[in-house]
Design goal:
The chain is α+β, with helices and mostly antiparallel strands. Helix 2 (about 80-90) runs parallel beside helix 3 (about 100-110), helix 23 (about 545-560) packs antiparallel against helix 24 and helix 23 runs parallel beside helix 25.
């Protein structure tokens, strides 16, 4: 996860090099392998390098050296061979071992701002074009890599690290009240383009930022389609074969180092990634080092480590089992070791994912995850609900006619779809009663909760990204900015080629119960895993008494002695809930955890 930053003085005064140096140095934790800045006139770029591939290079760079366009990027480009060929076909000589940043810059030189239409992968980049006096930036399709910016004191500041932007003396600590309200309700900021700070903006996924002589434009370049023309194969096996080919390609494109780690659980998604990654590395015939990690928690996930060990033995890979028990009852330090950019996920000391990231980073600079398997493969049972809602009757009919051609009868899944819809419709979020009433009234938070909660089906179909920034928020919490760990997380299920395919195939039967993945992994995973139903874990029964015990140890101090917290939270009401002998409901548990994190983050700002 390399760090990038840019400064542009909009009044054309000289770039503040000492400030640029300071901001670049602040990114050293996410790019420990090299550090460099470049200044020219009113523009400056900074970069810190995390070397994840042999092609990783020092930046800022220009192609050819000393040319008028300069780039800093945090990028991993997919389908590099095809992009290289497209560049060569248009007279641009590129070497086989060209870096991703150089590929992006060549694409920009050839296609200008339309270069993003030819890029796939996980990326953010900043290009300064001196000839056009233009700054051009872009964020990847799914928001896997973050990007922030601010315009303050006649300066445009851009970075992939929020706290880096906060170092600018003109950026205030003023909070974005709407974002705070969203977090207390939903555990995330539901606006794609803002942050928790009033002065700092977020570039949404699949958007570009262009600054030219004082004019700033934010433009989308792609949108996740609701549906695509239906792929029709005569043989069912062709669907599985095509999926397996794309899935292997997605994993292979993320294996560009000789040492790799993977998450592994007892389910289908991460184990499929691990099995495919090991097969790809073996077929390459070159030396490699492979490690898998699983988190064991006997109180919440008593069977997961057993299933994970079964998979590791079947594949033939080493597995490291980490003890995940006790994190929920951990006592956090007064201030976090790594400053938390925004309130998200959980208090670091009470979140086992931090320990998982540290252990993976000790073995390799990259880790493969199974994120995306659930949303990408869960559309089948209720596709007709969303398509009917949006008037896509022709698409629904096409799926049914295709089912009749293959099975001699339609496939409806009415009962399963309606049952699932009723379940998610009944899962209403409880309103946290301890939110400060004046704050709630000012932002009309009950209406906000109703507004966001209306489209339940839309929030989980199409990769869960139709109406919610959940996934881009989750990706950001895996960043070194949150963990303090310099490691790159790769998510093969969010490969654009694979996503487009899953949207285009008939949802039934292939996206029912992850059928297409189960069929593709028949020879690679044990039958116990292939036949295992989806497992949902719940909080342990001892949560309420455990939290009561913690009031006098750290919770009481956090709630009573955090400056500014009373503007948002009625701490007396919350403490009364915590000290009550009545058990805390499941809805209140979730609300309580996010409130404690918000308080912890707010105190860390002091």
């Amino acid at each position: 996860m390399s760090g990038i930053v840019s400064l542009v003085k909009e009044d054309r005064s000289p770039c503040d090099r000492p400030l640029l140096n300071q901001m670049t140095e602040s990114l050293g934790f996410r790019g420990p392998d090299a550090q460099q800045v470049w200044c020219q006139g009113s523009v400056g770029l900074g970069h810190t390098l995390l070397r994840t591939t042999a092609q990783s290079d020092r930046q800022p760079l220009s192609v050819p050296e000393g040319d008028s366009q300069w780039i800093v990027a945090d990028a991993r480009i997919d389908d590099r061979a095809n992009l290289r060929q497209k560049l060569r076909d248009r007279g641009c000589p590129v070497a086989e071992n060209i870096s991703d940043a150089q590929l992006i810059l060549h694409a920009y030189q050839l296609w200008d701002t339309a270069c993003v239409e030819h890029l796939m992968g996980d990326f953010v980049f900043i290009i300064w074009d001196d000839t056009k006096q233009r700054l051009f930036c872009a964020r990847d399709h799914f928001g896997i890599v973050p990007f922030y910016y601010a315009r303050i004191d006649k300066t445009l500041i851009c970075s992939n690290t929020l706290n880096c932007i906060r170092l600018h003396p003109g950026v205030t600590a003023k909070l974005n009240q709407r974002a705070i309200g969203d977090f207390l309700l939903f555990n995330m900021n539901m606006a794609w383009d803002t942050t928790s700070f009033a002065d700092i903006r977020r570039l949404p996924p699949a958007h570009t930022l262009t600054w030219t002589r004082g004019k700033l434009e934010i433009q989308p370049y792609w949108q996740l389609p609701r549906c695509l023309p239906l792929i029709r194969y005569r043989r069912q096996e062709e669907y599985v074969e095509h999926f397996a080919e794309l899935f292997q390609q997605a994993v292979a494109d993320r294996l560009r180092s000789a040492t790799v780690t993977t998450h592994i659980s007892g389910g289908m998604d991460s184990t499929s990634v691990a099995a495919t990654a090991y097969q790809v590395l073996e077929e390459r015939g070159k030396p490699f080092e492979f490690h898998s990690f699983t988190m064991s928690d006997q109180s919440m996930m008593p069977e997961e480590d057993t299933y994970a060990a079964m998979v590791a033995k079947h594949i033939g890979i080493p597995i490291h089992v980490l003890d995940g028990s006790g994190y929920i009852s951990a006592i956090p330090p007064k201030y976090p070791e790594t400053p938390i950019p925004e309130p998200a996920v959980g208090i670091p000391a009470r979140n086992s994912q931090l320990e998982l990231a540290k252990n993976c980073a000790a073995k390799a600079p990259v880790v493969l995850t199974g994120f995306g398997g659930d949303p990408g493969l869960r559309f089948g049972e209720f596709f007709w609900l969303e398509w009917f809602k949006h008037g896509l009757f022709a698409q629904w009919l096409a799926v049914q006619f295709h089912a009749i051609s293959l099975y001699r009868h339609p496939l409806f899944y009415w009962r399963r779809g309606l049952g699932y819809w009723r379940k998610i419709s009944r899962t209403k979020q409880s309103f946290p009663t301890w939110v400060e009433p004046s704050f709630s009234r000012r932002l009309d938070l009950p209406a906000r909760q109703r507004e966001i909660g209306d489209d339940s089906v839309d929030k989980i179909s199409r990769y869960g990204m139709a109406q919610s920034p959940f996934w881009s928020n989750l990706f950001e919490t895996l960043e070194p900015s949150y963990t303090g760990v310099a490691i790159k997380h790769y998510h093969p299920f969010f490969d654009l080629r694979l996503v487009n395919y899953l949207i285009a195939i008939p949802p039934v039967p292939w996206l029912v119960n992850k059928n297409i993945l189960r069929e593709a992994m028949q020879e690679k995973l044990p039958q116990q895993i292939l036949q295992r139903p989806k497992k949902v874990f719940h909080f342990q029964d001892t949560y309420s008494p455990m939290m009561r015990d913690m009031v006098d140890i750290w919770i009481g101090d956090l709630l009573q002695n955090t400056p500014g917290l009373s503007d948002y939270v009625n701490c007396d009401r919350l403490l009364a809930l915590l000290t009550s002998p009545q058990p805390i409901s499941s809805g209140d548990i979730i609300n309580l955890e996010r409130t404690l994190l918000f308080a912890y983050w707010l105190r860390s700002l002091q």
